[in-house]
Amino acid sequence: MTNGATIHDYLKRYFGFDTFKGNQEPIINSILGGRDSFVLMPTGGGKSLCYQLPAVMKPGTAIVISPLIALMKNQVDAMRNFSTDDEVAHFLNSSLTKTESARVKKDVLMGKTKLLYVAPESLTKEENIDFLKNIDISFYAVDEAHCISEWGHDFRPEYRRIRPIIDTIGRSPIIALTATATPKVQHDIQKNLGILDADVFKSSFNRPNLYYEVKSKQDATKEIIKYIKNNPGKSGIIYCLSRKKVEELAENLKVNGIKALPYHAGMDSATRTANQDKFLMEEADIIVATIAFGMGIDKPDVRFVIHYDIPKSLEGYYQETGRAGRDGGEGNCIAYYSYNDILKLEKFMQGKPIAEQEIGKQLLLETVSYAESSVCRRKLLLHYFGEEYPAENCEACDNCLHPKSQFEGSEAVVSVLETVLAVKEKFKADHISNILSGKVTSAIKSYKHHKLEMFGVGEEKDDKYWNMVIRQALIARFLTKDIENYGLLKITDKGMNFLEKPTSFMLAEDHDYADTSDEENAFGAKTAAVDEELFSILKDLRKKISKLKNVPPFVIFQDPSLEDMAIQYPVNLDELQNISGVGAGKAQRYGSEFVELIKKYVEEKEIIRPLDMVVKSVVNKSGIKVYIIQSIDMKRPLEDIAEAKGLEMSELISEIESIVNYGTRINLDYYINMVIDEERQHDIFSYFREEAQSDSLEEAIAELGNEFEEEEIRLMRIKFLSEMGN
Fold first, then answer.
1. CA within 13 Å, CB half, 109
2. How many domains is the chain partitioned into structurally?
């Protein structure tokens, strides 16, 4: 039955294919031969056929253990389509009624069913165990086998109990299948299922059509909108860590005319399913989702996957980016990275058991390494999955297309290898890098490693540098991470040879994605290059309008706003509202002449505008600002407003100043008339109206400070700017 012709006959008859893909044929032969098998095959490689075909060919019923109820249903439907009999495949899980369960069991006992899909929870039920003892089981297929390992990206404790239950029911060959597994996870799976001597089949993890890039998380929302607008009509998935961010980002995209929908576990299932279907049917181009999305999504033409937040593990990252370009066409994978996000993820782990925290930290470290490294991203990813990528340049990642300059690093590598030997190969990377950089930690003290001769030999560099050297030594296979005690560094034979006879070894410094704060200067003016010519023309226009309206120039727009216009070139009122210090009010009141002038200037000079400008922001007056505006409308005393929000008076005035600077009109007369007498009001108002060169508070205090309190000056300045400007 196992000769090639028969297998191909079955392949054609049941599945309509003429040839096998990749490793499918040897895997099927292994199962038909009654061997235990371990199959590592990235998504899209045709994993399910590996157990479906032998199940149809062998006498008895194959038990397929799978954690995803939706996927089970899909697979059973698919199998029934291939066959003329509906009984050929069934599933047994919590979604079935008693009657449906009884029918499934009857078909299985009568020998009509070749594949029975079971959820691991159903497998543990006493009645199901008793039932399975009575049937002829051809083999067990454990799908999504990475769920066995705590180091996998989707650990499920019930998967740990599969082997004892198989022993209770009766042993048959076992085939474990997974789409992502590091060497550590593979070892865990085989050990836990008791199949350490199984035939192992690994397919390559390389997806040549995917392009990988990591960007600093600055203005990420703007950048994403720009990217989508430059790729009209293309399908994309954007992953965020929190439900709140999913909602917020989807809203931002919609406001900017992008067909985007949110998807997360907090939405009711009808809406979720509807959004998923709209994405599949191309009624929406973009889905913004938490990682709850994508399980079993088989949309072949997803052209980009963007990670707004970096994922918790590289396995998760590989799984999610793997949803791009399934058809072999273009697939761009862009991740936004900020070390702050890593700190947030570490915080989330704090309530968990220590063992889980340890694993989580190790996995996060791998993610940080991937993001910060300037080594070929493909090389790094494949190395993580235990695969070597021989090419020097993959030509499809940011690090290969824009390489950092390299420097001779053989001495540094020798220092690392010597230190690993000095601590008898019993420590992890961060400990080794602390020794080399001379950092005295509690662990270093307790092991007396500050007394080693290697301690501090590389103190002119920090621990981050030494971590980078260790990482590149791992990729070069001079070092390896111990499988049983994951993370302990061991030297390989190749590493020993290098120690004895060092040769040239080039290193590249890591990227520095230091968090440049999103806070901009007082009015948010960016510090990019200002177009001085345009700036001066805008100032002339401002002067002209100020004469016409009989108000000081700074009331119309302040200098930082004009500077921002001379960087961003807004050509319509929507764009003008995104300029720092310009709100909807000011844009409507004064904006049209400014945007007309800029538009003409851009056309004449043939200027390529930074596209950030087409980004509209969702009007997000933070709760506190809304509260202040409403309270002032109700004429509440400022002291009461400050107390209600736990603010100092000067903090409240700062909030009001910020509201006015963005063009919202505020009437504080009711309060000002209570606290400043009329003559004093008149004096301060005239100063701003007639003498002031700018709206600078410092200048006003220098001029008026002897006679007036700072608070009086600030309140009158608010009144002046609001009445004259807004």
1. 12
2. 5
